Amino acid sequence: MSKKSIGVTTLTPSYNDKIRVFRLLDSIKNSGYSNVESIVIVGDSGDTIAEGRKKYPWVKWLHSGPIDVGQTGRYNIGFAHANPKNHMLYCDSDVVFEKDMIMKLVKRAESKKKIGVVTPMILYLEDRNWINQAGAEVDLKTGRVSIGWGKKEDYLKAMKVQGSGTVMLFTRDLVNKIGCFEDWYMCYFDPDYCVRALKAGFENWYEPKAICYHDQPKDDNLWRPRILSRAWLSGRNRTLFMRKHGTNILLYIVFLPFLLGYYLKESIKYNIFPKWWELVCGTVVGFFSPVNHEVYIPIPKVQE
């Protein structure tokens, strides 16, 4: 199958960030990939949609409704409205694609039937020689997260990864087999999807020839406090993830004091102690919330 015949649908949630969304759409338009369907799912006022339809009439603009359904809800609306034959390109709004990124993701995805997820080399927009993310992994024993981060030249080899975030291509075969995202609002739904892909028999790959840029600060003093910006959800969803995918929940419980201790130090350092308490409360709630152990999560039906 030629690259031009393989359809790709880009899915982007938007919430009060139209300038970033428009910048992303410009990079998609200039990507050089001919068979692209782009969907933006807006959760704020209709102003973004009205302006977007004028500037980008080739984009499918959707509104997620009067209730805030979070990232997962907006992405899942996109799944429902996408061309059912296309690969799906999950992309946050704060990224910019390099010209051939989509083509190179598709090329890797089509190189092997077992591939379900492909993530690009994600560089900082402010420092294009430094990796923001080259795959990611949640330790299924402890819940500790590690991310491919460092000098660009250290991540020039394609490799299997557990998962990623920010930008990922999901093959049509994968979407048909495991459906859409777990409805967790935000936080940990992307590693959950990647681990479900592995459980379904697929491989997840990092492709360094596909490149995009992430508009995220590289300075520790700017990005580290942001880790606790969604503290309650992060705590709850990490625990849900570990209950669902962890190899031994007792090991996770043993490791929790060390994990929470690390974030306690961070909260004191950045004067955001209340966020640490939110993290603790969310973590506790996660032990008592219902867990869906199914690999397949149905794509919602389009509401007429």
From TrEMBL:
KW Transmembrane helix (keyword) present: yes
Domain of life where this protein originates: Bacteria
UniProt keyword list: Glycosyltransferase, Membrane, Transferase, Transmembrane, Transmembrane helix
Database matches in SUPFAM superfamilies: Nucleotide-diphospho-sugar transferases
UniProt KW Transferase keyword: yes
Cited PANTHER family: GALACTOFURANOSYLTRANSFERASE GLFT2 (PTHR43179:SF12), RHAMNOSYLTRANSFERASE WBBL (PTHR43179)
Family to which this protein belongs: Belongs to the glycosyltransferase 2 family.
Name of the protein: Glycosyltransferase 2-like domain-containing protein
Source organism: Candidatus Curtissbacteria bacterium GW2011_GWC1_44_33
